[in-house]
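Sample entry (251 residues):
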Amino acid sequence: MNDKLPFNRKQQIYLLLSAVFLTNAIIAEFAGAKIFSLEKLLGLLPAQLPVFGGEKLDFNLSVGVVIWPVVFLVSDLINEYFGRNGVRKISFITAGMISWAFLVVLAGTELPPADFWLQLNNTDPSGQAFDINYAYTSIFRAGMGIIVGSLTAFLVSQLIDAYAFHYLRKLTGHKKLWLRATGSTVISQLIDSFVILFIAFYLLGNWSFDQVLKVGLVQYTYKITLAILLTPLIYLAHWFIDRYLGMNDPA
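Predicted structure, serialized as tokens:
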């Protein structure tokens, strides 16, 4: 079926989906150094849910996971129209670009700061002494551990997602898009959510193993919940792409 589609339009769709995939993946990598409180954002008290034999669980998330559902939504669309090879291709390209960004930023943290830049930014809004070069280095180097862990988790989870999506598509044909999209995400993100935290914050950081488990559980729950909520958006994107490519097959 795909071989009969107009090549130029197929190429345009693949380039657009790949650009969205790559851009959001890189943003998520560098934004992920910050952990934010969902309760504070919503003006709620800490959840303090009991887990792990008396431990309390609050809804603390990496900023990177906020847009990560966009990545696996687009991954499912690429898999739907271009198969596992299409997903593998953009996954390896994205991993290469993240690695390049990693090297550029790492080099940037080693460059000597200009004196006037330090002087212009030597106090914070409250008038307290502030070292902007230290802040710059701390933030970006905090992201370095995330990138190392995330690259490992990203490639493994993407390849598993592509395989699971393809396997479910063999079972469902062109029907039940929601099942293969959500099902592949449930499987792949279980690995992604915990592997990245374990490597970035436990092996290369200063977190305890309990913190990894708690934050990983929250992030996994968030990703799966959002994957389910985004299902109508997948169908909408599928509808637009089908019409753009001149396809009328039901999803």
